[in-house]
Amino acid sequence: MQEQRTPQEEPASAGHAEEGLALPELVIITGMSGAGRSTAANTLEDLGWFVVDNLPPALITTMVDLGARSQGNVARIAVVVDVRGRSFFDSLRESLADLAAMGVTRRIVFLEASDNALVRRFESVRRPHPLQGEGRIVDGIAAERDLLRELRGDADLVIDTSNLNVHELRAKMDAQFTSGDEPELRATVMSFGFKYGLPVDADHVMDVRFLPNPHWVPELRPYTGTSEEVSSYVMGQPGAKEFLDHYAELLSLIAAGYRREGKRYVTIAIGCTGGKHRSVAMAEKLARRLSDAGVETVVVHRDMGRE
């Protein structure tokens, strides 16, 4: 005989945690196949997160509900979402809307890489791209990139792994998630050289090639923008200090908006020709300004040393 439940005994439906239960923190790891989703997930698992790999998007709210019922044992959940089809994508959009309605603190980490890097990785392991079908690897990459375009735009953190090895990707994830007290906003200030290409994971890109290039000053050429000699030369040029003052002021307005919208990560890229002198000096100065304003800041010099 089937047991009958009273209304009080009925389990709560998936995706609707009971009132009063503490909702777990949620990170959704997604992005391009071959860009390092598994490495990112393993890093979070090592940091104590409860990680679920290849979870169907429709079950994300169920995982959050189970975490809320764990009495604090599952306070941080990371799910790896492999969006390989339109139905999966539509389910993910619905799940994100449900999470917002539940008041869940969630972040999307998107792993990105260039087409060339992805092709090399698939060829090295002799595996087809999951979306290439009867076509080439590049066809699968193009299809996936198109499918994920909107989701990438919604990401809280985009990490370009094109030039990263496994250890460097783990270090980036550690830097973003190790802190015990989550800051309101964390900024990465990156210097780069335009001749090596734009950084694809930047939220803001600024060009300081309007300043004289220390490369053409023989006594400064061997140094980088981290040296006092080059820094003083760059910041002493007409317009340099004014640029720093106005851009820092603009970023303070943007940072306030990001905080209101719940965006926790921003990557600011400062570029010059080779990424050795002007961009490095300006990135160091800007990072100091942001740090003094209470923004947790990491400085990355992407192309310094490549010349």
List keywords for this structure.
307 residues; alpha/beta; five-stranded parallel sheet; four-stranded parallel sheet; 9 helices; 40% helix; globular; disordered N terminus
Please give a structural write-up:
With 307 residues, this protein is an alpha/beta fold. It contains 9 helices and 9 strands. The strands form 2 sheets. The protein has a 5-stranded parallel β-sheet, with helices on both faces. The protein is globular.
What is the averaged pLDDT score? 86
Largest sheet: 5 strands, parallel
Number of helices: 9
What is the straight-line distance between the termini?
A: 78 Å
Spans of at least 5 consecutive residues whose pLDDT stays below 50 are 1-15
Could you spell the SSE succession in H and E letters?
EHEHEHEHHEHEEHHEHE
Shape call: globular
Residue share in helices? Answer: 25-40%
Structural class: alpha/beta
Radius of gyration, taken over Cα atoms and rounded to an integer in Å: 23 Å
Give me the side-by-side strand order of the main sheet.
2-3-1-4-5
Number of strands: 9
Strand-residue proportion? 15-25%
Write the layout of secondary structure elements.
Blueprint: E1 25-31, H1 37-46, E2 50-52, H2 60-68, E3 76-80, H3 86-102, E4 106-112, H4 115-125, H5 137-154, E5 157-160, H6 166-177, E6 186-193, E7 204-207, H7 228-235, H8 240-261, E8 265-272, H9 278-292, E9 296-301
Parallel strand pairs: 1-3, 1-4, 2-3, 4-5, 6-8, 6-9, 7-8
Helix pairs in contact: 1-6, 4-5, 7-9, 8-9
Give a brief rundown of this model.
By secondary structure, this protein is an alpha/beta fold. It is built from nine helices and nine strands.
